[in-house]
Amino acid sequence: MWLFYIFAALLLIQSLLSLRGGLRYLSYFRRETRGEPADFAPFATVFVPCRGLDQNLSDNLTALFAQDYPAYEIIFVSDSADDPALEVVGEVAARPAGGENAEAVGGASPVRRVRAVVAGAAVDEGQKVHNLRAAVGEAGAASEVFVFVDTDARPQPRWLRSLVAPLVDEKIGAATGYRWFVPGGGGPASHLRSVWNASIASALGEDARRNFCWGGSTAIRRETFERLKVRDEWRGTLSDDFALTTILRRAGLGVKFVPACLTATHEDCSWRELFEFSTRQLKITRVYAPNLWLIVLVSNLLFCLVFFGGLAHALARVLAGQSFAAPLVIVAALFVLGSCKSALRLRAVSIPLSAGGAGPRAGDWLAHLLLWPLASALFAGNALAAAGSRRIRWRGIGYELKSPRETVIIPRAPASRDVESSTD
């Protein structure tokens, strides 16, 4: 039992450090969302890879057409001309110029050009990467900034301006946001996914050297993209964002995390979709960032051992008629510290989310305060599953991840008119 108490002491110290990190996270959000972004808004190309129908796809795409930005173009790209997502693109693009945001941008749409590119089927790389590699060659000559966004994201009106603005500093390699799951129906699986994902969101912060790109909301200068030969470096990869992060770090360039670009994903999921999504993320992490995967595995196994093991130990002592105060106090302390960290994180993200009309509701607060131990257990299970397999399924396509630069495609299913599992 002394080993249990040693591990408990280590975990309590880690929890206190994590709570301090939560305070810094909230401070960073408050500081970064105060005032206006830098006055840097050159012509930009927004690349949108598509495959299948995401939940609320029409609303998500409408938000892309209604950005408060001087001028930009949007290039949608899919592997097939029959992709039903392209039909939705056509419907949204055909609506009156400017839409609800017309008044904010001077009465006319800032979107100068909309294109749909058919990339065809990938052969030896991820389909999303294949699509992006085909799309970047279609950018207009006037474009100075490349922006990448996923179809499951619903950016707020000033998302594009806020994401591009940090690139005024040429020492910044890229600017990024991150996703925040907003459950619609409020089911337990959807809430647990939001809590699970929240811990990754809080890994981003002030230190540009430690931040990573999220492919669903990233901006990079075109000159930087081409100088670093990102299109060629993407060849053979599955994860566009992990690969881009590696390229930038190798070049000594940082990644600026922009809290105002924390982007809502309005989706629900089943338990199967939750396990599929979360395990896929850890399998990708194991291949592209094995040291990070190992940290996730060890830290979450340690938490499960102490927290759930402490509960079991306390119950065993109750049944044996013995004192159970010590293990119960440890478990209670861990729970309170973790809930305080969750509250700080949720308070921070509520600043940009509320600006976009997606602020946390009472049910969201309850889930984040109570479900985080289950999210940790899920992380441990995901990491263990990743230790035994490098095969994933993503938007109807099976992959085996041989290495960061070698992706094998397993026989595929066509893009469906039904809702696809969209998150990456």
* Main structural class: alpha/beta
Strand content: 15-25%
The number of helical runs is 14
Shape: globular
Total beta strand runs: 10
Strand order of the largest sheet: 3-2-1-4-6-5-7
Note poorly predicted spans. Answer: 98-107, 415-421
Roughly what percent helix? 40-55%
Return the average pLDDT rounded to an integer.
92
Radius of gyration: 22 Å
Q: First CA to last CA: what distance? A: 41 Å
Describe the main β-sheet briefly. Answer: 7 strands, mixed
Q: SSE order, as H and E?
A: HEHEHEHEHEHEHHHEHHHHHEEE
Describe this structure in words.
By secondary structure, this protein is an alpha/beta fold. Helices cover 48% and strands 17% of the residues. It has a seven-stranded mixed beta sheet with strand order 3-2-1-4-6-5-7. Strands 8-9-10 form a three-stranded antiparallel beta sheet, covered by helices on one side. It is globular, with a radius of gyration of 22 Å. The model is unreliable at 98-107 and 415-421 (pLDDT under 50).
Write the layout of secondary structure elements.
Elements: H1 2-32, E1 44-49, H2 57-65, E2 72-78, H3 84-93, E3 111-118, H4 127-135, E4 145-149, H5 159-164, E5 172-182, H6 188-201, E6 217-221, H7 222-227, H8 230-233, H9 240-250, E7 254-266, H10 271-288, H11 290-319, H12 325-355, H13 362-370, H14 372-388, E8 391-394, E9 397-403, E10 406-410
Parallel strand pairs: 1-2, 1-4, 2-3, 5-7
Antiparallel strand pairs: 4-6, 5-6, 8-9, 9-10
Helix pairs in contact: 1-11, 1-12, 2-3, 6-14, 10-11, 10-14, 11-12, 11-14, 12-13
